[in-house]
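Researcher: Structure for this, please.
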Amino acid sequence: MNSIAENVNLKSYNTFGIHANARYLAGFTAVAELEEILAEARQRNIAQHMVLGGGSNVLFTQDFKGLILHNQIPGIEVLQEDDDIVLLKAGAGLPWHELVMFAVGKGWGGLENLSLIPGFVGAGPMQNIGAYGVELKDVFYSLEAYHLQDGAMQIFNAKDCAFGYRESVFKKALKNQFAITSVTFRLAKTPVLNTSYGAIAQQLEEMKIVHPGVADVSQAVIHIRQSKLPDPKQIGNAGSFFKNPEVSVQQFKQIKKAFPQAVGYTLPHGSVKLAAGWMIEQCGWKGYRKGDAGCHARQALVLVNYGNANGSEILSLSEEIIQSVQLKFGVSLEREVNLL
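Model: Predicted structure, token format:
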């Protein structure tokens, strides 16, 4: 029996629940298995391939004609531990929230604000995932990755990854060249909690918690996410579809003059980050639905598949939203989701 399956429906492999077909697909739980799959692919002259994890940040707009390598590498391992820090290594195919819950259960700080983010560990550094005032780069130590062409294993530190806002070297210069196999995080045994994001402090207050710990912050984040964001198991989505755009202080002043309610956060390097969700809502898209493609009723940043929308319909809706925000605010929205 071949390890490579043919003509696989990808609906269960992407959180949008999009029906798309992969010409070939194979899952791997270890580097040795990946090497066997790639050797078989070479024998069968299958040249095009792509690594897929939880499929939580991808929109299939067409069938994939090559080989999808489904990363399922499991495992959690403590590499190093002292009185202050823990280096925690996780397999790239481990569900992200499982890792967070493991760390929270130990009382180790750093990942709690990133609770309930869908997807697998390997996608974390690719996207430099972030939520509620924390980004992955804040707790990142290193990662191991397998070069798909020459078969070499390589270790990347934070500088090598060139992290940016929902960006890394793996989305740009090294796109489709590596399969991330594991990620190591630097967690704190005496954590400094980040509750400055307004909603967290408010939620902790509602929970009547005066001196929160790691588990309390995690629980607050989970509650907020569940109240605002649709569960992909119930309504197909990939979380935030758009990035929050950055503009100059001068441009923000102009926007604020025309729209006094405009929301902006000044960044350390001087530019201002705008709330994309607020702008989309002002353009009248929140709760919009055409066929089975829509803009979520509680969070305008989230585009949804109510059942049988195809990727092209979701993409078309996103283009209309981008055009309307450009027209109203003079701001260009950028998609956070990867298009295929």
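Researcher: Any notable elements?
Model: The two ends are 29 Å apart (CA to CA). The first strand starts at residue 5 and ends at 9.
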